[in-house]
Amino acid sequence: MSDPTSEMNLRLLALYPEQMNIYADRGNIIFLQRRCEWRGLGFSYAAAGPGEDFDPVAHDLVYIGGGQDRDQVLVAEDMLRTKRDAIAEAVEDGAVLLAVCGGYQLLGHRYQLGQQSIRGLGIADLETVRGEGERLIGNIAIEADLGAGPKVLAGFENHGGRTHLGAGAEPLGRVLHGHGNDGADGREGVRRLNMVGTYMHGPLLPKNAWLADHLISLALRRRTGDAVELTPLDDDLERAAHEGARHAAERG
Ligand code: GLN
């Protein structure tokens, strides 16, 4: 067990890990843990499930995965009641928030499921509508610039909801292959401060190690107040996973 008082310690909080873990999204957490451990950095894991609140200053990376519509309905109501303020406070204070698919949809103002309107956290200017159309399924690649020039993210998407960004909202990236937020406007995901929302599963991070490292750096910087230089790792397998996902997206 690493020393949670050490500053070089990634403090991760998983939201609803039992309810929101579709397509092995918890693989993202394992990957973050491994990349910290391989570098001799500490990693501490905490979870907040139904009915539980949390201390917004005690975690530097908050994670929520994807989920089916019925799980989202339950989670959304509970999350608004027990966690909304802490999540918003953590994000405003520079904590990293990574939200995938069902979790991403819940960052917005609402998720309209037919007649049912599910209120979201309202921390990203977007809303999602589940219409009559077909699910948006398949391999996807996008181009995202998170500050170090454009880079590719590759993964898999499967969502019935169409997400529409508000006028001022910034997408995570531009779709190269696949559907993205709504299958129409060529945009994928959202980013604001150190918050990233995306439809990309896979799980996402093992196929896109550069994003995992970017999030680790941001989280450690929030903790220590200093820029953190991460030791390079032997990424042969990660590169192969990325190339495989990217080629799958190119083939359509
Ligand atoms: N239930 C949501 C949808 O279908 C999200 C699905 C997911 O997380 N893969 O749009």
Keywords:
globular, alpha/beta, six-stranded mixed sheet, binds glutamine, four-stranded mixed sheet, Rossmann fold, 252 residues
Would you mind describing this structure in some detail?
It contains 7 helices and 14 strands. It has a single domain, classed as Class I glutamine amidotransferase (GATase) domain (Rossmann fold). The protein is 30% helix and 29% strand. With 252 residues, the chain is an alpha/beta fold. It is globular. It has helices spanning 27-38, 69-82, 84-92, 102-105, 204-207, 209-224, 236-251; strands spanning 9-15, 42-48, 61-64, 96-100, 110-113, 116-119, 126-130, 136-145, 150-159, 162-165, 173-177, 187-188, 190-192, 195-198. Strand 8 and strand 9 form a beta hairpin. Bound molecules: glutamine. Glutamine is lined by residues 22, 66-69, 72, 101-102, 158-161.
Q: What are the bound molecules?
A: glutamine
Major beta sheet, strand line-up: 2-1-3-4-14-13
Helix share bin:
25-40%
Count up the domains. Answer: 1
Overall pLDDT: 95
If you compute it from the alpha carbons, what radius of gyration comes out, rounded to the nearest whole angstrom?
A: 17 Å
